[in-house]
Design brief:
23% strand; binds cytidine-5'-triphosphate; Rossmann fold; 5-stranded parallel sheet; alpha/beta
């Protein structure tokens, strides 16, 4: 289950030009399974009509403290009780000032006073206003009070000025909300993940590779970042965006991945080797495109280094996790790899099974541990597998 599945998120919209972006935030949250309620200030309603939010959220917009909902509930109290998290986007200088100073004179600021769940504040305004002492002081104050404050983007603003003050893109805001909703139990830990396929060139235009999409490794990197770790990813070629706040080393071949992993392993506390590494590479890579001059052809391959095995031999205190993608005899193969590569844990999956393997958004894995324990997991989203994996690793390193 995704982090936002069945969550109730309240979006507070205050009066700035970026208010239109909140519509997209709402849509994104719903796409990820959340239910959304919207609170607007009167000024926000001058930028985007409440009807837009009403139609999309399926709930009337809360705008006036003295108004009662048709159901008779006092919404600034009942929504504050029910909300799993709150996003204020855009947060104007005025709204920031009110919340920081305990002023509750409209629906949004009154609601915030009653909220006990995490609040992500997304300031958006003219650069001079954002950099003003009052706004900066108020933001410091909000952070000290436990609010999560997102730094605005820099760029060309609606007022024509270029500088900080732009509301970040909705996917980024939703992503940071997921971080806010995750425990910070990996704080202080450094995680190194390898992901994706490797590519072994045959000639300048052709290569040998495999079907790895990189999804599992990227989800692990993302989940580890959400949970507070400093994450580095050594990644083969994929079509996926690098998760926010994760540093990526791009590689193509197994030899490059070997070099990058060995170079970075000493700085890691946890190493998770998800990448699908080509076991063999072409012995003599042609300098020019190979022409079809004969009816058949033989390409001579030579063995690539086993990266995981090398890490297993060199590791000091790192917790080392490998993956075993098998088509049969999962237990025997996974246990043999666990032992021969000196791993603390191996994540086995049968790639030919429905709901598992390359390209799929779900995975069914079995975890084998060096101490002999085994965990069978059901089919889960790769994001949930990533979190389950981190839970198990944490339980063993603490
Ligand atoms: N691995 C690696 N370097 C290689 C081959 C594999 O680091 N040259 C790592 C993978 O990233 C994975 C684990 O070893 O974490 C198991 O990979 P897998 O392809 O399942 O097994 P192999 O060891 O290659 O064995 P085989 O292909 O014979 O099943």
């Amino acid at each position: 289950m995704g982090l936002l599945q069945n969550k109730l998120i309240v979006i507070g919209v205050s009066g700035g030009i970026a208010a239109y972006k909140s519509v997209e935030i709402l849509r994104q949250l719903q796409k990820e399974g959340a239910s959304v309620r919207v609170i607007m200030t009167r000024n926000a309603a001058a930028f985007v009509g409440p009807l837009t939010f009403e139609a999309l959220s399926g709930y009337s917009v809360y705008m006036d403290v003295v108004e009662k909902d048709v159901s008779g509930e006092i919404r600034h109290i009942s929504w504050a009780d029910k909300a799993d998290a709150v996003i204020i986007a855009p947060a104007t200088a005025n709204m920031i000032g009110k919340i920081a100073n305990g002023i509750a004179d409209d629906a949004l600021s009154t609601f915030i006073m009653a909220v006990r769940t995490p609040v992500l504040i997304c300031p958006a305004m003219n650069s001079n206003m954002y950099e003003s002492r009052a706004v900066q002081r108020n933001l410091d104050c909000l952070e000290a009070d436990g609010f999560h404050v997102l730094e605005p983007d820099s760029g060309e603003l609606a007022c024509g000025v270029t500088g900080p003050g732009r509301l970040p893109d909705p996917p980024f805001i939703v992503d940071r909300l997921k971080k806010v909703l995750s425990p910070s139990d990996l704080k202080g830990k450094r995680v190194l993940v390898s992901a994706g396929p490797t590519i072994e060139p045959i000639d300048p235009v052709r290569y040998i590779s495999n079907h790895s999409s990189g999804k599992m490794g990227y989800e692990i990197a993302r989940a580890a970042e959400y949970r507070g770790a400093e994450v580095k990813m050594v990644t083969g070629k994929t079509s996926l965006p690098v998760p926010f706040n994760v540093s990526a080393v791009n590689v193509l071949s197994a030899a490059e991945m070997y070099e990058a992993m060995i170079r970075n392993m000493d700085d890691a506390d946890i190493i998770i080797k998800v990448a699908a590494v080509a076991d063999y590479r072409v012995k003599d890579v042609a300098e020019h495109k190979i022409k079809k001059t004969s009816d058949d052809m033989i390409i001579k391959l030579e063995k690539n280094p086993d990266i995981l095995k090398a890490i297993g031999e060199k590791k000091k205190n790192q917790f080392l996790v490998g993956f075993a993608a098998e088509t049969r005899d999962l237990r025997e193969n996974a246990l043999a790899k666990l032992k021969s590569k000196n791993l603390d844990m191996i994540v086995g999956n049968v790639v030919s099974e429905e709901g598992s393997g390359f390209g799929s958004d779900t995975n069914r894995v079995t975890l084998f541990y060096a101490d002999g324990n085994i965990d069978h997991m059901p089919v889960m989203g790769k994001d949930a597998v990533a979190n389950a994996l981190i839970d198990r690793i944490l339980a063993r390193i603490i």
